[in-house]
């Protein structure tokens, strides 16, 4: 039973033998002995969730999570900001890779 205590269970209820329900949007998912589909659902549908940084320590926030929060920007400006952020991240990433 202890193995069930993954953090994703904060966001899901088990509703049947092989079914779980998302507490955030009540969507039902098939549960096949692994929490990966639930994790995927949380990532895709609820970008704001946070889990313990186990295997995903290197994951960076999506560019879209920055740009979508800036709806008031005009498209040209938004594109420029996106490009700048992308360049910044790529550059930094490349530097760390080299070490
Ligand atoms: Zn959901």
From TrEMBL:
Record's keyword annotation contains rRNA-binding: no
Keywords: Metal-binding, Zinc, Zinc-finger
InterPro entries, per the entry: Znf_BED, Znf_C2H2_sf
One of the Pfam families matching this protein, by short name: zf-BED
Residue intervals of the BED-type domain: 3-53
Gene Ontology MF terms in the entry: DNA binding; zinc ion binding
Highest taxon listed in the record's lineage: Eukaryota
Name of the protein in question: Zinc finger BED domain containing protein 3
Record organism: Dissostichus eleginoides
Organism lineage string: Eukaryota, Metazoa, Chordata, Craniata, Vertebrata
């Amino acid at each position: 039973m202890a193995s069930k205590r993954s953090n994703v269970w904060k966001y899901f209820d088990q509703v049947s033998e092989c079914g779980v329900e998302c507490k955030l949007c009540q969507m039902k998912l098939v549960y096949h002995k692994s929490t990966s589909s639930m994790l995927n659902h949380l990532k895709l549908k609820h970008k704001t969730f946070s889990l313990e940084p186990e295997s995903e320590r290197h994951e960076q926030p999506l560019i879209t999570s920055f740009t979508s929060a800036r709806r008031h920007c005009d498209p040209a400006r938004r594109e420029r900001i996106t490009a700048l952020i992308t360049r910044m991240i790529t550059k930094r990433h490349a530097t760390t890779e080299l070490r």
